Amino acid sequence: MARSLPSLAASVQQAQRRRSVRQVQEKVIESILFLAAFSCVAVTIAIMVILGVESFGLFKQVSIVEFLTGIEWAPLFEPPKYGVLPLISGTLTTTMVALLVAIPLGTTIALFLSEFASTTVREWAKPVLELLAGIPTVVYGYFALLFITPLLQALLPDLGGFNMLSAGMVMGIMITPLISSISEDALRSVPAELREGSYATGATRLQTAYKVVLPAALSGVSSSYILGISRAVGETMIVAISAGLQPTLTLNPLDSAATMTAYIVQVSLGDLPHGTTGYQTIFAVGLALVLMTLLFNIIGHFLSKRYRERY
Hints:
Elements lengths: L3 H56 L4 H6 L3 E2 L6 E2 L2 H32 L2 H12 L6 H19 L8 H25 L3 H9 L4 H12 L1 H16 L3 H6 L17 H8 L9 H30 L5
Antiparallel strand pairs: 1-2
C-alpha cells in the first residue's frame, strides 16, 4: 500500500499534464480557426472600405443621382458622362441570357444524375461535367467569338460580330456545372421515404422527380441559382472579348454592349493617373457591382429560408 501511493500520485500528475497539453492544443486550434474566419471577414471589410473611399472621391464631383440615373457613360471623354445605367443594362442582359441557358440545362442534368442515372454513369458524368468549370474564361471568350457567334450569324444574318447573345450563352454553359453540381447534391439529400411514398401512390419516376423530389429540394436548388447569378454578374473575360466594349443603354441581346466588369478591365491598364476622376470611376463601378451581388445574395438567403424543408 505504501509503494502504491507514490505511483498513484505520479499517475494523477501525468494525467493532469496530458490534460493541460490537450487544453493548450485545443486553444491553439481554436485560435487558428478564429484567425482563418476573421481574415475572411477582415478582407471583405477592407475591400468595401477601399471601394467606398475611392468612390467617395468621385461622388464629391458627381452626384449619386447622376451616377445612377444617367443614360450615357463616357468618363474619359470631353465632356465626361457618368451615367452607369448602360453598364448595368449590359451586365443584366448578359446575365439574363446566361441564366436562360444555365438554369434549365443545369436543373435537368441534376435531375438526371440524381434520379435516373446509374451509379457508374454518375461517377463518370459528374467529374467530366465539372471539368467545364476548370476551363479558363478567356478560352470561353474566344469560343464565343470564333465559334458561337458565326453559328448564330448563320441563323441571324444581321447579328454583329460582337453581341451579348453569344457572350451570355457561353456564360450559361460555363456556370451550368456549378448549378448542376449543387442542385444534384440538394436532390440526393431528399429522404428516400418521400420517393417511396410517391411510388406507392402509383407515380412514375418522372412524376416523382418533378413533383416530389424537386420541390422538396427547392431550397438547395434555389441557392445554386443565386450562386450562378453571382458568378454570371461578376464574369469578365467572356464579355470583354465577345460582347464588345461599347457602353450602350440597351436590353437587346443582339446588340453589342459593355458590362461593368468589362469596363473595369478596359480602363485598368495602368495608364490612368492615381486620384483622377477616371481612376475613381473604376472603384465606383466596382462598388455598384459588389452591392448588386450582395443584393442577389440577400434575396437568395431569404428565398432559401422561405422554402427550406425540414425532414
